[in-house]
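Researcher: Structure prediction, please.
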Amino acid sequence: MITYTWSISKLDCAPLENGLTNVVKTIYWGLTGTDENGVSASMSNSYPLSSPSPEGFADYLTLTEETVIGWLESNLDVGYIQSRLVNEIASKYNPPITSLPFPWIKVEEPIVVEEPVLEVIERAPRPWRSRPEPVLEVIEEPIITEEPIVTEEPVVEEPIITEEPIVTEEPVVEEVVVEEPVIEEVVVEEVVVEEPVIEEVVAD
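Model: Predicted structure follows.
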């Protein structure tokens, strides 16, 4: 008898869609089948969900793991997935017949290149799992006595003053025009002195 166990690894949500908040868009799931001897096989994949109606929408904080698994069981072909797990478990008891290389031909071992390990970051936490509150440790920082910072005085370079030659202005010599005196010609009128008339007196 094989026991099947579902697991949910991540839920991708749309923050806002058609007026609804935190709408689940993709479920990342895994299904493991284990028989009575402890031999198991697993299968994992992702399933996209269609946009829910306002009437059938379930608030994200009220979701449980059983609710999400119910969505998967009602939408996936669970019978087909279980049959694949059964065949995989059976193949571990009865490995299939395979062709092996000739033992007398040396086959070089292939070079195995390790793939980088990708860190899985959950975009939204699963609401049915409570996370422990982080314990805050108080770390006392050492008291560092800072030495006074000596700031060097900036060196002020004196500006180089290039002396310009002193230009002495030549004195402006004003020409003094000495006007020659105007000599007015004086017209001297001849004074005619009339000689007195001497009358001769004749004695009788």
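Model: The beta strands are 3-17, 20-34, 40-48.
Researcher: Thanks, that helps.
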